Amino acid sequence: MIPSLYRLGASLICAGALLATATPAAADAGYPAKPIRLVVPYAAGGPTDTFARALAAGWSRQLKAQIVIENRTGAGTLVGTEYVSKATPDGYTLLLTTVAHAVNPSIHDALPYRTIEDFAPVGLAARAPLVLVVNKKLPVGNLKEFIAYLKAHPGQVNYSSAGVGSAPHLGAELLNYMSNTKTVHVPYRGSAPAMADLIGGHVAFMFDSAPTGLAQVRAGTVKLLATTMAARLPQTPDAPAVAEVVPGYEAYTWNAVFAPANTPPEVIRKLTDTLGATLKEPALQAKAVDLGLQLEANPTPQALAQFVRAEIAKWKPVAVAANMKAD
């Protein structure tokens, strides 16, 4: 009798161990069982939304479940970001955001969420270079002459941007911070009016996304002086990187995916694996070229976590030096 009970108990223990071991795999196999919402804290039709929709198309195929884009705008990116931070951590509500996520702690007095603690990183998807363009009448012919001109006219040269805390704003203030120059920021509601006033001569220069900025360069309406990644861009091999004159300079926006904190690790793993596979799809890679994006080769949660912390540390002193505050 006792040996039989012993064998029964041992069998139950083994079965329990097997069940415990299988649980993550079972959860992974059952996910996703319904559509996933990818929250974009930007308006429909903009560059972030455009990339999100292209990404969602391929990612849906990889996950074998529909990914639905949900634009939640307001208070910069705070409304959409807060929404995801408070969502059920089950993998069915995700956030695709930008460099604003790392800058917001420095330009807002308070946030309705915790930038690090309230999110589970899924993966960095893409980086978006900027270009430095100037009004055609500005008396400079290259980047060195431009920086010399700024130093000779402190506080007298103005520039436009797509708004406070936007990537173009950050790019210009990083240049001020690292080259010891002082320029005057003129914020606009979007890059289109900012570019229009640059062309019209109301401002002297701006940083813009590579596709829209280079379109104006090709049209002959502005002059290209430099690009903002650490190395020159393949599409503009004759234009220097700012870092060639200002060592260490690098400015760009980015697109990364986050889930609410406490999302199960097996769900994060499946999201990350399928995100990586999506970024390798030829269709998305072709779309990225059109959008001026550089896709990540192997996104991981660990790399994104380190990246966001580094971005927060990078932009905080720049924001403080520029007295950068959200409207």
UniProtKB/TrEMBL annotation:
It comes from Cupriavidus metallidurans. SUPFAM superfamilies: Periplasmic binding protein-like II. Pfam families: TctC (PF03401). The keyword Signal applies. PANTHER family: BLR1237 PROTEIN, TRICARBOXYLATE-BINDING PROTEIN. It comes from the Bacteria. Residues 1-27 form the signal peptide. The keyword Flavoprotein does not apply. Keywords: Signal. Belongs to the UPF0065 (bug) family. This is Tripartite tricarboxylate transporter substrate binding protein.
